[in-house]
Design goal:
The structure holds 2 protein chains of 2 kinds.
Chain A lengths: L3 H8 L4 E7 L8 H10 L4 E6 L9 H12 L4 H7 L11 E5 L1 H7 L1 H11 L3 E3 L5 H14 L3 E2 L2 E2 L5 H10 L4 E4 L13 H12 L6 E4 L5 H10 L2 E4 L1 H6 L6 H13 L3
Parallel strand pairs in A: 1-2, 1-9, 2-3, 3-4, 4-5, 6-7, 7-8, 8-9
Chain B lengths: L9 E2 L2 E2 L8 H15 L2 H15 L5 E3 L1 H7 L2 E6 L9 H14 L4 E6 L3 H13 L2 E7 H6 L1 H9 L3 E5 L6 H14 L4 E3 L10 H9 L1 H14 L6 E5 L4 H7 L9 E9 L10 H4 L1 E5 L2 E5 L24 H8 L3 E7 H15 L5 H8 L11 E6 L7 H8 L2
Parallel strand pairs in B: 4-14, 5-6, 5-8, 6-7, 9-10, 9-14, 10-13
Antiparallel strand pairs in B: 1-2, 3-4, 11-12
Helix pairs in contact in B: 2-4, 4-5, 4-9, 5-7, 9-11, 10-11, 14-15
Chain lengths: 260, 393
């Protein structure tokens, strides 16, 4: 079967909207309801966060949601259980995002097989470096039709970007600035240079910009330089509070996609 | 069998660099340059000069007569507690600040548990006129207050880490986040033999001066280069790495690390990583960790802030797995007894961390002709409040 990520980017070249949330937050059983609401509101791609006790690449918002999710009892086992019928709910691409240690403890092969079984299309594991991926993970990922999504940053050398482009399938996650997730930002001159520099490289993979995308303005700016953008911390923050999940999700997505 | 790091950054199956892409430029820069820098003539000159004239090396190797009488064996103390700033940590910070300068970095960050590494970092930053930011768990900021005051007087900014258990692991997370946010002009001085390659090897090399000195000092004093055994406490494991380093290939020298058992290895309040842990990845290297079956890191506990860490350097994980070194543990209560014993027998108040190594004496069957070297990694000034509360003076 064709990977849903590739299908998405073939059909949609611009303003692709990807949203991240932490599984198990705010409540343990919110995973499927959040996915349903995101789909209903027209999101193109969903990144489901697998919480980890020590998320070094994340800022305070996702650190907090991870902590609460773990306290709620979230685990990879529990998540797969929640996702077992998810392909009866939606056909948009689903990506799991998390740190390497819980995956290692689950067992890499078992993890990848389970991903295929429930219908996961890709993985983002920030602390799985390129070299280790190629040596120890690539074949098992590919055997299970899972795309590993690599990150590039303003500091990534051109050579390395080309290497990453060569090994990538699906899309490249373009980190907008030198930051952990959730940093406040608008598009600065420095970022503009970086975005334009990467544009000129004519990479074969589509690019999605993430980190610091938090509102309609930053979403629109990011979309000028890439196929689309990823919202994480801003959405997780929007899930706080006592309103109905349905309201929180639709209010947030509307605030992003509405042209101001 | 080699116990040193291989060209890919592994000790056996442990080590490596499990870093997010954001850290790749800095780590690759270090990987490509650290050996050339630290083997260069200029660097050696400066490093040796500072260790001698600024730190006060060589630190004495002291024959502890009354302690030896008590245990009916020959016990020597390697007096790292007499170094400038009061512990072995300064050996590494001197080395790394010189590396940072050669790489053109202007801003230094560090994590600290007991504050000894933070203090040693703040000290070399003052010495070199570099900006210094130290991350320290909020709990440790409280329990190691004297060191916090010293760091601030030295001009460092001490930022309390308020996530997790607010101890060393959390301070390390915050320091890594800082580096991700400041990738260009910042060098991260990791204080132990942990973190991504090349840190474990680089820090072990800077600390290896400890065992280098032990060998010639012991020969000078006894006519033999090799003791029967070397004993050191282990949290991340930097003082033990330094004390073991030149004995790793001397297979007849017994190497003993002592972990912090906290309230006991049967309780949840412990930091005895090798005794209780399983393989996994934390702070960018594969080692042995205290974790749940789901791979979430367990919050550790020890009376000693410097050993209150759920991981251990990959070098030690390999020495443990290959059985080259033996790892014991000591509880808080055993450690306090050992600290008081040394104080009363030798007039030396040890750091709580170092007292773990001393507590091993009761767990070993020492023979009269045997020579044991204990690495006394730090002094007890910073722990006076804990000691006073416990002993009630």
């Amino acid at each position: 079967m064709k990977n849903r990520i590739n299908k998405l980017f073939q059909e949609k070249k611009e303003r692709v909207l990807s949203v991240y949330f932490t599984a198990g937050y705010p409540d343990l059983e919110d995973t499927v309801p959040i996915i349903k609401e995101l789909v209903k509101n027209g999101v193109d791609l969903i990144e489901i966060g697998m919480p980890f006790s020590d998320p070094v690449a994340d800022g305070p918002v996702i650190q907090h949601s991870s902590l609460i999710a773990l306290q709620n009892g979230m685990s990879i086992r529990k998540l797969f259980d929640q996702l077992k019928d998810i392909r009866q709910v939606t056909d948009i691409p689903l990506i799991l995002m998390g740190y390497i240690n819980p995956v290692l403890q689950y067992g890499v092969e078992a993890f990848c097989e389970k991903c295929r079984e429930v219908g996961i299309d890709g993985l983002i594991i920030p602390d799985l470096p390129l070299s280790v991926y190629e040596e120890d993970f690539r074949s098992v990922f590919e055997n299970n039709n899972l795309h590993n999504i690599f990150l590039i940053t303003p500091q990534t050398s051109e050579d390395r970007m080309r290497t990453i482009d060569g090994i990538s399938e699906g899309f490249i996650y373009m980190v907008s600035s030198n930051a952990t997730t959730g940093a406040k930002s608008s598009v600065t001159d420095f970022q503009k240079d970086y975005f334009e520099r990467v544009n000129l490289m004519k990479l074969k993979n589509p690019r999605m910009i993430g980190f610091g995308i938090s509102n309609s303005e930053t979403f629109r700016n990011a979309c000028q330089y890439a196929s689309g953008a990823i919202l994480g911390s801003a959405f997780v923050k929007a899930l706080e509070g006592t309103d109905l999940l349905e309201q929180k999700v639709s209010r947030f997505i509307n605030s992003i996609v509405t042209e101001s | 069998m080699s116990y040193q790091v291989n060209e890919k950054g592994y000790y056996g199956e442990f080590g490596g660099a499990y870093i997010p892409e954001m850290m790749v430029p800095n780590i690759e820069e270090l990987q490509h340059n650290y050996l050339e820098i630290i083997n260069s003539y200029d660097f050696r000159q400066e490093f040796v000069d500072l260790l001698k004239n600024y730190v006060g090396r060589p630190s004495p190797l002291y024959f502890a007569k009354r302690l030896s009488e008590k245990y009916q064996s020959k016990i020597y103390l390697k007096r790292e507690d007499l170094n400038h700033t009061g512990s072995h940590k300064i050996n590494n910070t001197i080395g790394q600040i010189l590396v940072a300068q050669k790489l053109g970095k202007h801003r230094i960050i560090a994590e600290t548990g007991a504050g000894q590494h933070g203090l040693a970092t703040a000290t070399v930053c003052a010495l070199m006129g570099l900006e210094c930011i130290v991350y320290m768990g909020a709990v440790d900021v409280e329990r190691q207050a004297p060191n916090v005051k010293k760091m601030r007087m030295l001009g460092a900014e001490v930022i309390p880490a308020v996530s997790g258990n607010q101890t060393l692991k959390d301070a390390t997370n915050e320091a890594m986040r800082d580096w991700i946010n400041n990738p260009v002009d910042t060098h991260y001085i990791i204080g132990s033999v942990v973190g991504p390659h090349p840190y474990p090897d680089m820090v072990a090399r800077f600390q290896s001066v400890i065992s280098e000195e032990i060998r010639w000092q012991l020969e000078e004093q006894t006519g033999r280069e090799n003791p029967t055994r070397v004993i050191a406490c282990v949290g991340g494991g930097s003082n033990a790495a330094g004390a073991f380093y030149h004995f790793l290939d001397q297979e007849n020298v017994e190497l003993i690390g002592v972990e912090a058992a906290g309230k006991g290895i049967e309780t949840h309040e412990t930091a005895a990583t090798l005794t209780l842990g399983t393989p996994g990845v934390l702070h960018s290297s594969r080692s042995i960790l205290m974790q749940t079956k789901d791979g979430q890191i367990t919050e550790p506990y020890s009376i000693s802030a410097g050993l209150d860490y759920p991981g251990i350097g990959p070098l030690h994980a390999n020495l443990f797995t290959s059985k080259r070194a033996k790892y014991l543990w000591a509880t808080d209560a055993e450690v306090l007894d050992a600290a008081l014993e040394l104080t009363r027998l030798e007039g030396i108040i040890p750091a709580l961390e170092s007292a773990h190594a001393l507590a091993a004496l009761k767990k070993l069957q020492l023979k009269p002709e045997e020579v044991s070297v204990i690495n006394l990694s730090g002094r007890g000034d910073k722990d006076m409040e804990t000691y006073l509360n416990h002993f009630g003076y």
